[in-house]
Amino acid sequence: MEASGSLLCCSICGKGLSREEGRYFCPNGHSYDRAREGYVHLLPANRKHAKEPGDDKGMSAARNRFLSGGYYAPLLERLQALAVERTGPGTAVLDSGCGEGYYTQGVWQALTQAGRTPRLAGIDLSKPSIRLAARRLRAGEFAVASAYHLPVGTQTVELLLNCFSPLALEEFRRVLRPGGTFLYVVPGADHLWELKQVLYDTPYRNQEEEIPYEGFTYEAVVPVTGKMQVAGEALQDLFQMTPYYWKIPKEGAARLAALESLEITADFRIHVFRRS
Fold first, then answer.
1. Cα–Cα distance between 121 and 99 in angstroms, integer?
2. CA 122 to chain centre
3. Tens digit of pLDDT for each residue in 62-116?
4. The sheet that has 16-20: what strands, in order across it?
5. What b/e sequence results for 55-67 when a residue is b if at least 16 CB atoms lie within 10 Å of its CB, and e otherwise?
6. Which CATH class is domain 49-275?
7. Which residues lie below 8 Å from residue 226, measured CB to CB, with a gap of 6+?
8. Is the pLDDT reported for residue 126 higher than 70?
9. What is the DSSP string of 56-102?
10. Domain edges within the chain
């Protein structure tokens, strides 16, 4: 099989990678095996701060099931519209902290349906998540990697997505082309408020802040808010995919387990930036 170009770079020397059926390789002879699902491991051992960094298999599977149920579809639809609006015919897209690839796949579908030919890559620290992402979107490139050491070339990306993931501004500035778009998704003040009321004796609302970032022009904030009825396994999946799962008192978890369903607020903010 003839080798083809890649959005990804060598994690050792930084040179651009080429890919063929079973591996990625760079001009300096460094080679990386592609897993059966198609992803590649580009996280050097000296940057691996845990045996299995990132979200574990259970959390990744829970989030994959929940998002596949369409509960966050309004957010995805708004991201799709912004992606089509703000990119050109042969756009290069990076999803930093892509998780299981739900938003990655949705943006790729929207761009393709709009007649574009996107080149798209997603990175995440979690191998279980990246494995699911690679299965979800065969047309994309996926790598186990850190947002703080992106295996992507300088000024090669036209659209950068970051949905509920670490904000690595220095790297984001590096990889985005001048004039490129950065879509940064964060929870709004009321996100999952009713779930918090069940879990905590004294729930708190999320803080919303003005976000001026050096090297970026802040162009808009797009709110996406609505109610969702969540029941059964999906309610437990939602709980497991949140940070609350690891720190909630047993009493709060027991109150949630006793519920058959719950109407919950989904409240998001999409911050839209342009690379200066």
1. 12
2. 7
3. 999 999 999 999 999 999 999 999 999 889 999 999 999 999 999 999 999 999 9
4. 4-9, 16-20, 23-25, 31-33
5. beeebbbbbbbbb
6. alpha beta
7. 74, 265, 266
8. yes
9. -HHHHHHHHHHHHTTTTHHHHHHHHHHHHHT--TT-EEEEET-TTSH
10. 1-34, 49-275
Tens digits of residue pLDDT in 184-200: 999 999 999 999 999 99
Contact 238, 257 (CB under 8 A): no
- Quick one: three-class SS letters along 6-69? EEEECCCCCCEEEEECCEEECCCCCEEEECCCCCEECCCHHHCCCCCCCCCHHHHHHHHHHHHC
pLDDT digits (tens, 9 = 90+) for 48-60: 656 677 789 999 9
Q: Which two three-digit tokens encode residue 104? A: 């990655």
CA–CA separation, 79 and 208 (whole Å): 20
Indicate the residue type of 72: Y
| Rounded CA separation 204/185 (Å) | 20
The token duo for 197 is 């009321």
Amino acid at site 271: H
Quote the CA–CA distance of 175 and 156 in Å, as a whole number: 6
